[in-house]
Amino acid sequence: MTVTAKARTLGELLQTPEYAGRTPFDGRVRLVQDEVRENLTRKLRAGEELFPGVVGYDDTVIPQLVNALLARQNFILLGLRGQAKSRILRAITELLDPEVPVIAGADMPDDPLNPVGAEGRHLLEAHGLELPIRWLPRAERYVEKLATPDVTVADLVGDVDPIKAARLGTSLGDVRSMHFGLLPRANRGIFAVNELADLAPKVQVALFNILQEGDVQIKGYPIRLELDVMLVFSANPEDYTARGKIVTPLKDRIGSEIRTHYPTDVGLGMAITEQEAVRDPSVTVPPFMAELIEEIAFQAREDGRVDKLSGVSQRLPISLMEVAAANAERRSLTGGDAPVVRVSDVYAGLPAITGKMELEYEGELKGADNVARDVIRKAAGAVYARRYGSANTRELEKWFENGNVFRFPQGGDSREALQATQEVPGLTDLAAEVAASADDAVRASAAEFVLEGLYGRKKLSRAEELYAAPEPETRQQRGGRWN
């Protein structure tokens, strides 16, 4: 809806083309769900992007979400942490009109022509066509609440305000004596509850009662509020058993339960991380390093020592990318080298990994740092195998098997690091192939990646930055059925 000149009173509003022929209390109500459906329909016909910034859900979550919105349903997004649930809920505001008229001076946003609140009806009857109105932008029509066990019915719905009742001369049971909570203040908009299962059961009951029957009891007084609100939720499946439970009547009243998920392939994950990670633009992240950082999350999700019910958030590779880039920048500032992310920078980002993983008993015994290092090793081996598994590294491996060791230079100039790698047969040539760049800093990063990849495939062993031949038992496994 587009209003060319913003009306300031109900009379001026009725003179606009969109409201021509309307009268107060005419019963012609355009609900929020209808508004969202109309704008969604227009976007679908025009081929516009529905949810900018939401990556990887085009064939799974978004079609189900579109169906729920077209069906005018309330819905819940059910998924593990770090699966863009909150981003999706906030993006629905883009399906609202740019702005809508509401009664000015009322405690809750109300339709100037068909108010649902007692205060709004009283103001309309008192002022008539001179009723002052204001324009509510879409950003202010979204109200979000993070559910916690201490949230009360008063927080969401409201509470009796004795002072207000005395000032208005009404009884405590009169709806005009209420101090409204978040839900009534979201009237004519979207009300989102994150982590729904953490709400106390009595609060959940108040939610479905006010939505379905339009009434709720506040301190024994029956209060009727026929709100125009789209209610959307998010929850973690773990919450059903670990911290709380969604009460059955409320779950039954939620139209659609939509399951979210982590990126299904590394490429989608890389796109999300590149979009979300905040880093200095001067820092270069070679493609093989970006893939390694993303693969770490994929390996962690498959690791038996990591709790799968808790999940491994997409925030892990995002945070790791930021910390690794920061470490590369620090190395550049202190050593004068070009800021290019290396494997050593990923190891410097261990704090961004350990805090994102909930460990099982076996993992707790081994320690978070050791599990994270092992996950990095597996990820390096997986990326190397995908990209360069067919490369001939026999000469390089034989050099290490002859008892030689190599410590990759962690500081100094990249050219010096590349000169040092010439000591290892074939490493310089393979690094040039991996880097696909003439930049010395990128080639140095590629050389360290090659060594780490061979370590991940158990063709080398590693102690800090020192690479050597694989341990005898590992060498025996490679020669046997584990090769």
UniProtKB/TrEMBL annotation:
Residues 177-237 form the Sigma-54 factor interaction domain. Pfam families: Sigma54_activat. InterPro entries: P-loop_NTPase (IPR027417), Sigma_54_int (IPR002078). This is Sigma 54-interacting transcriptional regulator. It comes from Deinococcus multiflagellatus.
